[in-house]
Write the structure tokens for this entry.
Amino acid sequence: MTTTTPPASNVVPTSDKAPEATGNGKRRGRPSRRRSTPLTIAMLAVLAYFLLPLVWLLIASTKSTQGLINSFGLWFDDAPQLLTNIRDTFTQDDGVFLHWLLNTLLYAGVSAVGAALLAAAAGYGFAKFRFRGNGAAFNLVLGAVMVPATALAIPTYLLFAKVGLVNTPWAIILPSLVSPFGLYLMRVYAQDAVPDSILEAARMDGAGEFRIFFLIVLRLLAPGLVTVLLFTLVATWNNYFLPLIMLNDSSLYPITLGLSSWAAQAQNGGAGASSDMLALVVTGSMISVIPLVVAFLMLQRYWQSGLATGGVKQ
Amino acid sequence: MSRLLARPRSAGPLFIAPFMVLFLLLFLAPLGYAAYLSLFQEKLVGGTSFVGLDNYLAAVKDPQLREGVVRVATFFVIQVPVMLLLALLFALALDSGLLRLAKVIRLGIFVPYAVPSVVATLMWGYLYGPDFGPFAQLSDKLSLPAPHFLTDSWMLGSLANIVTWEFVGYNMIILYAALRTIPTELYEAAALDGAGSWRIAWSIKIPALRPALTLTLLFSVIGSFQLFNEPSLLMKIVPDVIDSSYTANLYAYTLAFTSQQINYAAAVSFLLGLVIVVISYAFLLTANRRRPA
């Protein structure tokens, strides 16, 4: 369906009907459709609901703990102090926040790259090679898509405790490397995106299988690869349950676990050193949200087309 | 390399091997080990002994586990249809071409997905707050009673709101991406036959969304039954509303890490995983059977 057909506007000269059918797939270019103001207003109201907590967070991160309690939540305080808050967040407890941020970056980065590459290689292997046990192995993995991560987490903890992996970075990274849904997505993607003729031609030219994979196939799989990468990144970045059960040492915490430990201090606070914690929790939350939002906005072209593949074919 | 070249098909298993090895070690091995542990019981006197399926029998009869499962099922029955219906409506609105600022709206609704559930829960927790939450402040200014978001009777709804806020955009994007792949010739033909926007949405778009809807529903089943982060974080704010067996998953966590009943916790996690897999498969089978060939 991606082959080009002449735009309908060339075929049908009058524009009295079918304004939706101006292009084939390139619907951004269809100019004739009238816009609906009521629908736009309704959707802007919807948008306001989704942005409300984030707007609150942004405003709240400019306030002191006192200001958070005393001033109206959805407007600025008299004395904005965003920079002070950011500095305090990074210096609290000897700069442990930066440590958490770097831990998160490490766990999420390694997991995402690893999971995407493993899924791409295996998805390509399943899609383009026939060998004994192919179908059985794939179905086994597909069945695992249904096993919820948290139901697996406690068993994984028990096993890791047995082999001494608990309370190490590996306890977070290793379980995040295996993405059954990523494999499924990459297999579907590889079937369409990697034409057999290119593989044949490369083999005729004498290229080895691994050379073909790294130089040709990975490039063809890029949108699917970015999708798996980004969604594993989010899953690991946002993971709370796994680090909660695996890690005791607060210097190994990712940001989610760190923030929740600060939030617990702020909750019990009011007394002594922890009385300012509320502002730090809010500012820390604000900082932790930024990287992923930026990543999603920058890479949207890739992950949206990757997701389309997963949702359309089953 | 030259051997591979001679028989290129033999390279297949090599591409699959790294994934499969990790899958065996990190997926099947933990499940197998948990299944093994679940067959034992640790007693104060006499140490660990094999008890067969006793832990499972105890789990089935456990009122706290049942309470958690029932609550999660209630949550699922209410929250998931609302969330998916909203996602579907938003996706159709975006795809209709009638919106101004469509791109801003699409990305804005999706953004919460990139927010960690810990942060989402902290934010909503503050927003819900009866003292300095903006809703409470507003109703105070208007001399109205403050909404009781964090009380027992509101809690499930408040949790549902957080989860809906987090995941509507994600589901919307999947549905929207699927809508974009429908060939526009179909709309053209339907419009020539005199079909309006609603008719096209109902007769062409929604049927074409079937696989995507199945996928989103499947993920929602899996997601709701593992509800943990949101209730466990709100528990710190209102410990008298959310107890340690509020959801099934929270209960499994409490068993393993607070009361240290490892064998029983293994049985409960295993049982929960099994229930979810069975429900998902049953659901997939019905969805596939109903699909017109």
Chain B touches chain A through 108 residues (CB under 8 Å). Chain B is about 75% helix and 5% strand. Residues 1-7 of chain B have pLDDT under 50 and may be disordered. The beta strands of chain B are 40-43, 47-50.
